[in-house]
Design goal:
By secondary structure, this protein is an alpha/beta fold. The protein folds into 3 domains: about 80 residues, no CATH class; about 250 residues, FAD/NAD(P)-binding domain (3-Layer(bba) Sandwich), CATH 3.50.50; about 200 residues, no CATH class. About 25% of the residues lie in helices and about 25% in strands. The strands form 6 sheets. It has a 7-stranded mixed β-sheet with strand order 14-15-18-13-21-19-20.
Length: about 575
């Protein structure tokens, strides 16, 4: 296979004949060679069975350095030496009577672990503390509009996980951990746009991802898998026969009868995919003498600009209606720590993502069209365990977690004391230049954050080692890559704190099982092994493979990819 590049106008597809002309030259084919052109975004395209070569449009990205154009990466297969093999989704088997594997959490790691188990012939039993994705929307609306927080159903908890209502970005750098196509093609199979198969920075959109998540559930249930919503895991016990008994509170029964009900589930393997905000799970594991360790994470603010300004910066004044809303990313080193943008949402809105009362946690999301008037991104500072203030050292593995909670609580306390709003999740905010110069912002610009904002000295409220690096990075980015980015038209809102888990559950890299709890497979963001939808999905797939290998031995040919015990550095 050889690779070559082509360019084209934004908003216009590549013509197959143009691809053939370039391919013949790049692949040294004869002038009358028959070449198939495959565009994965098209549902139908004619092919010739006796073709000399096949060209596949593999990647598409926008280049606005001069004229605004698409750059395409083309993969060419000369049939004299090799064949093009299209990706095919494995068969989902009927597992009604198969051996069970319990999955705790219905986020991307849990969902894709379940799908993989279907292909391997095992029955996934998914326990999710939150609600199904449709009912979950009502609780998020109450949180945003009325400030009513359901601790078990919000922007973090519930079917699909936190990523479902955070734009649905699918960009990842985790290609060495597994086959990314397995994730992307399954998303398309369940209703996502085929454009994600070629876009350099693919996204599904908050308006479309819930239906995709629902379709995944229907597939799993139709093959004999189980979902149990409103099921909050409270205990796990390893029995003498090697099975793990999982105890969970049934909130649906509590709602109906007013009495708590404990349900029991049992299996030889349990995949723990609870996400980065399930702090009670860590406490339960400690009580079971399961080893935990502190790990690095990141913290900062949400930055909101007018989308028109970002369009002007990134397209160098060439943006026109019909062009995609511009996005950005950056990574800088400031005083020996990385400072980077995270989860950038073009045309997006800011949302409250707290899971506990009397805290403020910010996140962003955008719909598939990305047509909103604002652009937002997390801008965060890398935090290593040694950066945590000394007063937290006695917390051990929970040092970062407790530090994280205290900053979230501090944000709420300031906003609560300085705002007369009836919404308890009003957030502290400051203009960008004011923040960097240590000046108060008396008047704040318009924002997409529905609960509202209150002027606040974020440069004083944030921990000094975070605030100082942020104060340095915004003028630096303006100078180096995005002139116009550093402006008082930009709003900083605190705090962006849930980029990843500050805790890791150590596991064996070969079988993915917890070092101190055989049969338990810590998985995804909450376990400290991923950082976004795709990397979490891949980790779920690898944990499912590991569970299947342990249960069936040599019957399962695949095995987890090397590196699954490490942490991704991506910013999806």
């Amino acid at each position: 296979m050889i690779e070559f590049e082509m360019t084209g106008r934004v908003g216009r597809d590549l013509r197959p004949d143009d691809v053939r002309i370039v391919a013949a030259r790049e692949m040294n084919l004869r002038g009358n060679a028959v070449i198939n052109v495959i565009d994965p975004t098209k549902s139908y395209q004619p092919t010739f069975p006796n073709a000399d070569a096949t060209c596949v449009i593999a990647k598409r990205s926008i280049d606005a350095r001069n004229d605004v154009i698409y750059r395409y990466r083309i993969e060419g297969y000369n049939h004299r030496f090799e064949s093009y093999v299209p990706y095919e989704i494995p068969e989902y088997k009927d597992v009604t009577d198969a051996d069970p594997v319990i999955i705790i959490g219905a986020g991307p790691a849990g969902m894709f672990a379940a799908l993989k188990l279907l292909t391997l012939g095992f029955k996934p039993i998914i326990l999710e503390r939150g609600k199904n994705v449709r009912d979950r929307k009502f609780d998020m609306a109450k949180l945003t509009r009325e400030g009513i927080l359901n601790p078990e159903s919000n922007f973090c908890y519930g079917e699909g996980g936190a990523g479902t209502f955070s734009d649905g970005k699918l960009f990842t750098r985790s290609s060495k951990r597994g086959d990314i196509r397995e994730v992307l093609y399954q998303f398309v199979n369940f209703g996502a746009s085929p454009q994600i198969l070629v876009d350099a920075h693919p996204h599904i959109g908050t308006d479309r991802l819930p239906k995709v998540v629902e379709n995944i559930r229907q597939c799993i249930e139709s093959r004999g898998g189980e979902y149990h919503f409103g099921t909050k895991v409270t205990d796990m016990t390893r029995n003498e026969d090697g099975t793990i008994e999982v105890s969970a509170l049934d909130s649906e029964n509590l709602t109906k009868t007013g009495k708590p009900s404990v349900q029991k589930y049992s299996a030889k393997k349990v995949i723990l995919a609870t996400g980065h905000s399930a702090r009670d799970i860590y406490e339960m594991l400690v009580a079971k003498d399961c080893a935990l360790e502190a790990k690095g994470f990141a913290m900062g603010v949400r930055v909101e600009h007018p989308q028109a300004l970002i369009n002007d910066i990134r397209y160098h004044g060439q943006w026109e209606p019909g062009m995609p809303a511009a996005e950005y990313s950056f990574t800088e080193q400031v005083n020996d720590r990385g400072v980077f943008s995270f989860c950038m949402c073009p045309g997006g809105v800011l949302v409250p993502s707290e899971t506990e009362p009397e805290t403020i946690v910010m996140n962003g999301m955008s719909n598939s069209a990305r047509s909103g008037k604002f652009a937002n991104a997390g801008v965060v500072v890398q935090i290593n365990p040694e950066d945590i203030p000394e007063e937290y050292t006695d917390k051990g593995a929970f040092a970062g977690l407790e530090f994280q909670k205290d900053v979230e609580r501090k944000m709420w306390e300031y906003a609560h004391e300085h705002s007369d709003s009836e919404n308890p999740f009003v957030a502290p905010a400051q203009r960008m230049v004011d923040f960097c110069e240590g000046e108060d912002s008396e008047v704040l610009p318009e924002t997409s954050y529905k609960p509202g904002v209150v002027p606040a000295p974020l440069h004083e409220i944030l921990p000094p080692f975070i605030a100082e690096r942020l104060q340095d990075v915004f003028p630096l980015v303006n100078q180096k890559t995005m002139r116009g980015y550093y402006t008082n038209d930009a709003l900083l809102i605190g705090v962006e704190s849930r980029t990843s888990s500050p805790v890791r559950i150590p596991r064996n890299p070969r079988n993915c099982e917890a070092d101190s709890f055989p049969g338990l497979l810590p998985c995804g963001e909450g376990a400290g092994y991923s950082g976004g939808i795709v990397s979490s999905a891949i980790d779920g797939i690898n944990c499912a493979l590991a569970a299947a290998r342990s249960l069936s031995g040599a019957d399962v040919e695949d095995e987890p990819h090397e590196g699954t015990a490490g942490e991704t550095s991506e910013a999806e």
